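User: I'm new to structure prediction. If I give you an amino acid sequence, what do you actually give back? Let's try with this one:
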Amino acid sequence: MLISLTVGKVDAGVAVLLTEDKRLIEFPSILLPPSISSGSIVDITVSRNLASEAASQKSFQALQSSILSTYGQQTPNPPILRCRNATQTSIVLEWDPISLATAELRSLSLYRNGSKAGNIPKPLEMTSTKMSGLAVDTEYDFQLILRTSAGVYSSEKLVVRTHKMTDLSGITVTPGIMPPPLRESLSGAIDRIGAKIAETVRIDTTHFVCMEGRGREWEKAMAMNIPVVRPEWVEGCEREGRITGVRGYYLNADPKLRQVGPGVGLQSPQRQQPQQQRSYTRLDASEATGIPNSQLPSRGPPDIQQSPSANNLRAANQPPPPSSPSETGSPAPPPPEKDMPREMPASQASPSQSIASVSASPEEASAPSQTTSTDRIDAQPQQNLKPTPETGDIPRKPEDNASMVDVAL
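Assistant: Good question. You get back a string of structure tokens that encode the predicted 3D arrangement of the chain. For your 409 residues, that looks like this:
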């Protein structure tokens, strides 16, 4: 197709051409002959290049196929979350390396019980994390959320429960510098309590056990804030049957801070049997003797000493047996008098006014009650504590007198 155009104006880069119907066309001046000027007439031939057009179409289709195979068939994989180890107050989580395909990473976040716990630092390198400060014997659910340029991908919820204080299977011990016999003994104790041994310090290491604070693994444990304890700590856990505190088992700790007690299954029969408590009843002297409180000396309650006798323990919850004149061989106490003087000499005191010691046997405890309990009345304080010429006994001190009667029931 041939077209004749008139050159109207020529600039450095663009020439203005005029058609026969006076239309303006901007044409690159570099494509015009160098000798043209305003008013020149040029002929331009226009035709379609089919070969070049077909080659360009084929190249475009190849590019589209490459984009589809690269970005349209592979997508990021959702993270897979697992529990690596659990203790009484911590949980170690791990997952497979993140697969992004051709997407761009935005963030990797960890959620606990539906709330965001934080972002994972260096998600393309780290594949584990440790959650500390958890409650004992409590259930938690965790989930990883992966955000990429291709979308958001979530892992399945992982439900984990922290251990009880008596569950020692979560303890992971890394041994340090110690004598070989002690190391063998430590391995046996760890096997007995159901714990694990890790030769190197890892993220799930709970305790570093050694006798000397030196070495590469010790430095790594200190950097990771892992408790460094003595081998006695494992023995304490085995003895107690539960996880014990590490305060008294540090390398430089005072042994007095250690809580030592019988372990589970090693309790003595006295600890396994229910303890029988001995009760005491204090009777007012006025009720026992009939003397008004205003006429009795004011004294505090006497100290009660528990008898270690087995008969007293068996009769702890039974009333005291009666004391008849025929059993004790002493005359029955006289009835109280209303006008009895407040103080009387010890030499004139009757046998019924002495301190009574009640100790019941099982046979006596089963006998029916016939008489009242023996009363105790304060005697006049003695200032001279020398033996009496009649009996040779030393009289009691004033502090030994009391206005209360202690009866073990």
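You can read the tokens as a compact description of the fold. Here is one thing that stands out. The chain has a mean pLDDT of 74.
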